[in-house]
Amino acid sequence: MKVIKNALQMQKIALKHLRDGDEIGLVPTMGALHEGHISLLSKSEKNDDITIVSIFVNPIQFGANEDYLKYPRPIKKDLDICRKNHVDYVFVPSVDDMFSQEHRTFVEVQKMQDILCGLFRPAHFEGVATVVSKLFNISYPDRAYFGIKDFQQLKILEKMARDLNFRTKIIPCPTVRERSGLALSSRNSYLSEEEKNISLKISKTLKEAVHEFRNKDLNFVKKNVLNKLRKIPNSRIDYAEIVNFSNLSIADNNTKRVVFAVAVWIGKTRLIDNVIMTKRSKG
Ligand code: AMP
81, 89, 255, 276 - which has most CB atoms within 10 Å? Predict the structure, then answer.
């Protein structure tokens, strides 16, 4: 496994693999790797000749009052995990290398970034789309792996890749959860034991919504979820919304495939989760 700290060097290496006919897989991460990340890089291991994992806490996707400075950065542990999982290259650029003082170009995916998390984190998805397009241009991936856990991010990046003619195929990967149901996240390390116990209510509530969705009206399902989330102690809801699976527009009872996405603060930690629900056709 090679650790590459410089974008130009990474680009040269990736280009050489591309010319040699190797298929390249990219797993973009912000580090503090857990089983969710490992599921992504294992998929790349299976599909691709070369797996590149990027570890970069991207400053431009954090708002002014968010957790950029305190975001966990256990780089030694992350490299061990990558090594154990047969990653070929870990790309760990510096902030200056990725975003010089003169950086002026940003990627905006209109409409899809103006709802759900985008309403509460205004510059977030522009930051994500910009850094991911840079990573695509640096590593020439045939495939790039993203978690369904960050559903809005996944959909925005699929749209970006299509609209901007990137050669990269976006591969969605299922959410990895603790046995308790809590979706794994690097931010779970902020939670106290008590907060972690409380957080389980989020995934439990969404799971129950999947059952209700089969035979109940959409608004009923939504109201029920909101009522249950409101009862979680020490919490605050940013949103609980049912959207169209394909384009993230607000769903109605005729939408066949929907995503119920929520963002809830537990104490000082913001957690997101979602479930995908499909209406069975009648008859
Ligand atoms: P992050 O390091 O949080 O930026 O995440 C890097 C990638 O891992 C993103 O594509 C996430 O959607 C994905 N990811 C994060 N948590 C999980 C999880 N619990 N299960 C599957 N994928 C995840």
Answer: 89
Q: Cβ(88)–Cβ(52) under 8 Å?
A: yes
Q: Output b/e per residue, 95-131; b: 16+ Cβ within 10 A.
A: eebbbeeeeeeebebeebbebbbbeebebbbbbbbbb
Count other Cβ atoms within 10 Å, centred on residue 182.
20
Q: Are 24 and 14 in contact (CB under 8 A)?
A: yes
Ligand 1 pocket test, pick from 30, 34, 40, 275 with the greatest ligand atom count within 8 Å of Cβ, gives 40
Per-residue pLDDT of 233-247, as tens digits, reads 999 999 999 999 999
Best mutation site among 29, 125, 186 for ligand 1 pocket (most ligand atoms within 8 Å of CB) = 29
For residue range 142-191, list pLDDT tens digits in order.
999 999 999 999 999 999 999 999 999 999 999 999 999 999 999 999 99
φ, ψ at 280 (rounded to 5°): -75, 140
In this structure, what token pair is assigned to residue 16? 């050489």
The SS3 of residue 159 is helix
Residues tagged active-site: 37
| DSSP count for the chain of H helices, then E strands | 9, 9
Mean pLDDT value across residues 202-216: 94
Tokens coding 152: 């809005």
Q: Does this model's pTM top 0.90? A: yes
CA distance 152 to 196: 24
Q: Please, what is the angle between helix 75-84 and helix 35-47, to 10°? A: 40
Cα end-to-end distance, the chain, whole Å: 54
How many angstroms is it from 254 CA to the middle of ligand 1?
30
Q: How far is it, in rounded angstroms, from Cα 188 to Cα 198?
A: 12
